[in-house]
Amino acid sequence: MSERTAPAAGEPGALYGYLVEFDKVDELLVGARAVRDAGYTRWDAHTPFVIHGLDAAMGVKKTVLPYLVFGAGLTGTVGGIALQWWTNAVDYPYLISGKPLFSLPANIPVAFETTILFAALTALVAMLALNGLPRLYHPLFTNRAFKRATDDRFFISIEAADPLFDRSATRELLESLSGRTVEVIEEA
Amino acid sequence: MSTSTAADLSYLDNTGTDPAVRARLVVGDNDFHSITEKVCGIVEQPRTPPAWWVLFAISSSLTLVLFAMIGYLVTTGIGVWGLQVPVSWGYAIVNFVFWVGIGHAGTLISAILFLLRQRWRTSINRFAEGMTIFAVVCAGIFPGIHIGRVWLAYWLFPIPNQMLMWPNFRSPLLWDVFAVGTYATVSLLFWYMGMIPDLASLRDRAKTRIRYYAYGLLSLGWRSSNRHWHRFEFAYLLLASLATPLVLSVHSVVSFDFAVSIMPGWHTTIFPPYFVAGAIFSGFAMVVTLIIPTRKIFGLEEIITARHLENMAKIMLATGMMVGLAYSTEFFIAWYSGNRYEAFTFLNRAFGPYAWAYWTMVTCNVVVPQIFWSRRLRNNPAVLWVASILINVGMWFERFVIVVSSLSRDYLPTSWGYYRPTIIDVLTFVGSFGLFFTLFLLFVRFLPIIGMAEVKGVMPQAHLDRPGHRGHGDYHGDIAASEVV
User: Fold this and answer.
1) Which of A73, B158, B279, B338 could tie B104 with a disulfide, CB 3.0–4.6 Å?
2) Model's pTM, two decimal places?
3) What is the DSSP string of chain A?
């Protein structure tokens, strides 16, 4: 891309970053390790399926998702029990066969189900939210080769917003890793 | 299988006699791209196959029959069904339990087999999850209509209403609402979440604008980012861990509808495990019934391999034996408990007016699966398919026997009766199959029926090629080290 115009970051035509393609899983892993060791932070790998060992090669930190799901599950338990206590023992006391108005054993099945329901909904919603999805537009989608990231190719992208990003040094790094031409991705 | 005579197709047979040897999970000369081509190709066929239209015409007509029957029921009243005192639970409850049971295989395959690291599940889990959701849709209809007054269905839910009343949370019927409702929701989440990367594949291959936007919206802008995959995998693991106790709870809670009552033949502690085993049994039977024609029609034999069918036959054999054990335990306890009513109920089941239903059940559920001991028979898709249909029949009769035989001979001999369904009952049941198959056909036509991203992950190419990087325990690697083909 020409160096003379320099639109501000994020504007159409501004450089989003570089994208480079890999054929094989192990090439990608070696490449990811090198990019990680070079100290880049705003970069990503794109793979059609989960690759064992790539998280470590990229240095991805463990997600907080399990804690959110655990919290939601607890909320579901407490909510399920509170619902049954309020509706059947307080607001409209049900006297059935002289049984106690509030007794935990009878309330376990519903509390169990609300636990699962809250936790499962949170697992999906929080996963998407932490990933910044849904996000229907992304600069990477402008690249034709990138369409194969959901098929059979592996990619590494480094964002121009990375503090270490340098137009020539970053390009050289990526080209040395994959042996292919680096694709320039612009904001559209 | 039918193709075993053709020598050039022998590579499709990855069943083995030595359990220590791992079977290839995908056979043939496949790479990542060929998997994408095969699975997306089904959805991308420019012309819908004529066979699809024929099946769709039949199933959607039956769906209309279902809606017509429900309309007739609602406008006329519950008297159009064969219900009478003492048998006040008939087809509606039988069908509900039947469909919920079928809905168990999907989550079993996607959750329990995932936690147990059964990697062969990847070829069939999407399919089974889809089937689960459609079965739960069918199941959900029956409790909604079984009182005939559908406009009062909101009584099921704890919502403030004009009566200033709340539902009774000590009733297993209300537990059912929560169990089945949660199960339907979580199954849907699990199914959809697993499909996001595959929907993105369809988006990236879209040739028309409509497909591009439709799959684009559904895939939520998935861009295969590994930082996203990391959370995705974690969410998947968490959902699997949550769905595992859930799937066991659902049919347990359904069985409480019976077990918490005082009816002889219902009031037994064996019911929860017995129902869950039966549910898995019937669910796998339905998966097999659907998957054998589907893999044949769409040429998916290299992905849904002979070994997959064999594994499912083995699971049916195991769960069929559990069901058989439950039947005999019930009889033993009926005698051992010394309870006259219980003893009478079971003698009446086997030799009373519903003996024909009882022995149909025993034949289909206990005798038929025994053929799976034979390697030759269980590896013959035609035999397996017929057996799976018989098991479906048997499992429907199991619920019929439980519901009807106990009620028709209750404590008071003067009120004994014989339950006969009306044509409306039968057509409603048949119509529910129409709805099930209609949803299934739409799924096959418009959504990826095989989890491509997961299948690719278990292929040998997905693992490191360099020596010294094989065999990270049993989860990844060591495929190529010892394989059958």
Assistant:
1) B279
2) 0.87
3) --SS--PPTTSTTSEEEEEEEESSHHHHHHHHHHHHHTT--SEEEE-SS--TTHHHHHTPPPPSHHHHHHHHHHHHHHHHHHHHHIIIIIIS----TT--SS-HHHHHHHHHHHHHHHHHHHHHHHHHHHHT------GGGG-SGGGGGGTT-EEEEEETTSTT--HHHHHHHHHHHHSSPPEEEE--
